[in-house]
Design brief:
By secondary structure, this protein is mostly beta strands. It has three helices and 16 strands. Strands 5, 7, 8, 10, 11, 12, 14 and 15 form an eight-stranded antiparallel beta sheet that branches. It has a five-stranded mixed beta sheet with strand order 6-4-16-9-13, with no helix packed on it. Strands 1-2-3 form a three-stranded antiparallel beta sheet.
């Protein structure tokens, strides 16, 4: 049985700062009591103070985000398997005079990095092309009188793990430890997809161009980076900042011209 308790109107109430009045049933600190009790009485100044606090909380926690979305493409002879969301999310609030916010390859927020697997014929050359902007922009901002759209610096970083993994390998932490970081600012990296001993060869597939069979191997690509810093006077306001960046993977034989 659910029992409801109604306080008589003659029970005295308690005044809080801002002319907020609470009945004895709410004075025990019950959050739901404060939210739903009919004995919560607000004078106009108190009402607007509570409304301001709620709006500030909502805008701070839900209305500010910085994210970079990946557009992933590849040639016909490569299989690309995303193992995470295709988006870098920087959860720190960025405003004027803010420092650098990172998504790291190794660190507390390493799980925020983008990871995808690259499967191709063993011994192939893997070419990775990157096209990323230098800034995120606040796309929903309406500039006025020649005003610039607020933007924050964005730097994309890349690493790859190429240790002769089988196409059945999915141990991302192991691959992360073996990852090789590409120098920051590089837009291209190329590597030979590692050959492995026959006893550890990966998925064997039929080669349409010969009677021989070929084996496929796996490499991993890690994408991470940073935003900021923002100096005072750059007209950076709280809001949603975003950008798109692209990664294209091309495969060709080792002996190709």
């Amino acid at each position: 049985m659910i029992r409801s308790c109604i306080y008589p109107t003659e029970i005295p109430v308690k005044q809080l700062p801002g002319n907020i009045w609470l009945s004895p049933g709410i004075q025990n600190g019950s959050f739901f009591g404060v939210m739903f009790s009919s004995h919560l009485r607000l004078s106009p100044p108190g009402f607007f103070m509570v409304l301001f606090i709620l709006l500030a909380f909502i805008l701070t926690t839900c209305g500010n985000a910085q994210h970079a979305s990946l557009i992933l493409t590849g040639s016909d002879d490569v299989v690309l398997t995303p193992l995470t969301l295709k988006e870098l999310q920087f959860r720190s609030l960025i405003m004027n005079s803010s420092g650098v916010s990172n998504v790291e390859l190794h660190g507390d927020n390493q799980e925020e990095a983008i990871v995808f697997a690259v499967d191709a014929i063993e011994g192939s050359i893997v070419d990775v092309w990157i096209d990323a902007p230098n800034h995120m922009k606040m796309l929903d901002y309406l500039p006025f009188g020649g005003e610039k759209i607020p933007s924050i610096p964005f730097r994309l970083k890349l690493a790859y793990a190429n240790s002769g993994y089988s196409t059945l390998h999915f141990l991302v932490p192991e691959a992360r430890k073996a990852a090789i970081e590409v120098p920051e600012g590089s837009s291209f990296v190329s590597f030979l997809l590692c050959n492995r001993p026959p006893e550890t060869s990966g998925q064997v597939i039929s080669d349409d161009h010969s009677e021989n069979s070929v084996s496929r191997a796996r490499a991993y690509i890690f994408l991470y980076g940073s935003i900021g810093p923002v100096t005072l006077g750059e007209n950076v306001v709280a809001g949603n900042y975003q950008c798109n960046f692209s990664v294209n993977i091309e495969i060709h034989p080792q002996n190709a011209n």
